[in-house]
Design goal:
The complex is a heterodimer of chains A (390) and B (275).
Chain A lengths: L9 H27 L14 H15 L1 H9 L9 H22 L8 H4 L6 H28 L8 H24 L12 H27 L6 H32 L2 H11 L2 E3 L2 E3 L3 H19 L1 H6 L1 H26 L16 H33 L1
Antiparallel strand pairs in A: 1-2
Helix pairs in contact in A: 1-14, 2-4, 2-7, 2-8, 2-13, 3-4, 3-7, 4-6, 4-14, 6-7, 7-8, 8-9, 8-13, 9-10, 9-11, 11-13
Chain B lengths: L2 H16 L4 H6 L2 H20 L12 E6 H6 L2 H14 L15 E4 H4 L10 H5 L1 E4 L8 H5 L5 E3 L6 E3 L9 H5 L6 E2 L23 E2 L5 H5 L5 H5 L6 E5 L6 H8 L15 E4 L1
Parallel strand pairs in B: 1-9
Antiparallel strand pairs in B: 1-8, 2-3, 4-5, 6-7
Classes of the chains: A mainly alpha (390), B alpha+beta (275).
Chain lengths: 390, 275
Amino acid sequence: MIEKTLKGKPAYWIWLAFLGMFMAVGVACYARQYLFGLGMTGMSRDVSWGLYISQFTFLVGVAAGGVMLVLPYYVHDYKAFGKITILGEFLAIAAITMCLLFIMADLGQPLRALNVVLHPTPSSMLFYDMIVLNGYLFLNILCGWVILTAERKQVHPPKWIYFFVYLSIPFAVSIHTVTAMLYCGLPGRHFWLSAIIAPRFLASAFAAGPALIILACLILKRVANFDAGKEAMNKLVTIIMYAALLNTFFVLLEVFVGYYSNIPGHKHSIEYLFFGLEHHGHMYNNLVPFMWTSVVLNFGALGLFAWPYARKKNEFLLGLSCAMIFIALWIDKGLGFVFAGFIPNPLDEITEYIPTANELGITLGIWATGLFVVTLLYKIAVGVEHEIEE
Amino acid sequence: MDKQRRKFLKIAGVTALAGIGAPALVRLSSSNALASEHGAAEGHAAEAAHGAPVEAAPQGVRLGMVIDMRKITERPELLDGAIAACIDAHNIPQFDNRKSEIKWLWKAPFANVFPVESSYHLAKNVKETDFAVLCNHCDDPPCVRACPTQATFKVKANGIVAMDFHRCIGCRFCMAACPYGARSFNWEDPRPYIKKYNKDFPSRMRGVVEKCNFCGERLARGQEPACVEACKGTGAIVFGDLNDAHSEIRQLLDKEFTIQRNAALGTKPSVFYIV
């Protein structure tokens, strides 16, 4: 099936070349960082995790979001998702690839990464994260490939594969739960020390992942003559709406707990995110415009989803609202959540984090790599689909 | 009392408490052993009731430190001397930007060192003196829990929270986990920024985390920690075994009221402050 990636219209090659350019920039930037050290980034003693780990956290969610297709299709036999379930699985592969690249980019000593395996430490949440992330990657490659191969031959997939398909469902939940546990089990970081982090992560994941899949379907419809079907799209929109509403609800609960309890530690990070934190006469508010953009996009998208014309009849508005919710959740989790956890630091000092150009280059490079991988995988999936139709 | 007997008594006590012990066992285990089991049980109950951490029954050596801020308020140069000694002893690089800073022992105002204590109408001398800040060498360290490679670990023999610079992968999970901001990361090669090279202690490479090690390497040579030595004879920093009732540090702790940094988190810090 891999041969399907080698044939395509000029637009396909131009797109790959475009992504390849960013990937090359990413490699060059990484070479600089590798030779100098993580001092090339904007991270500091106080904000010791930056864009890499925040992108990782967000993308784990995108990967887990694929389960919103797998679960209805395989467990509830929801036939309308038959054509696009493979897109969810392949998106998960690309997203986990990005996650692993972001982790590697973030390590101070990347050549020692295998120490996590050589000295397994069950008390560390990173140990479990390594297991579930790699496990989920493996499961998606296996299930996606076997099922697509069977589809191509127009036979039923072998029975044994269903064991792995069902196994991938708890794995999807576990990758984001364990990722939340990286944060929510740390004493002294009030913003993260909340039992709602894992449910909140899952809710935003189940909105962001499917939103990206709708966007992909809309693009594939135009460029690859692939129609996911109206019913499937409508159902996905319903899933996104409920998930995004739950996420909004969870975030508001955090705001309530912080402000009603009036405990400074519980309020500081929220205040920093949305209003800016005044500290010794200086106003720290780098993230405020981002967070309000997120709020506006979030509610704007929810409004558009609630309007039947926009979600059912107008593909432009549907795409727009999916892009809006995706960006809103990316800001919320892919920027705000991680950075604000470090503010203020344990000594009640504030250091703001601003990524450097080199860091942005690596980040864009990894995103481009993910898009590159997903393009190739979708090319295969759509190619097989067309082959069957002929 | 040797360890074997103690272990036996403990097991006997637990069995008896569980109600499955044979009467002979109960008779064998002295009333003392039972009493100590009761003590432990009460301690746990207290912890559950109001969240205040209760130290576990002492076991082995647990090194700790008392910093007498009254002495440092009188002679602030003592702390400066201790910091300088620490920098020299451990090849700590001196960066001029805050972003790359490496800090093992440093100073900060009371409000920053104890952000969960009230700083409202603080006594003038406390407000105006900088406090010593260093790793707390917690008895239940969150950084050790978080480390995915055991590159940071508790030394069984003395309770020091130590680092293996050669195993650290630089994921900085420990920095996020430490509630005391005690850890630093080598964002770049630190060697050009070491002012005076000390051959008795390794310098670090970029990409690893480091922090105060209670001078484990000096203790192994029979020396005191560098900061303690720098304050010798003044009593500003007292170092010793918290589990030894006859040690200088224990006698000081028995006599003076001390506070620990954010003890409510249950980390059981081993650094105490006399304010």
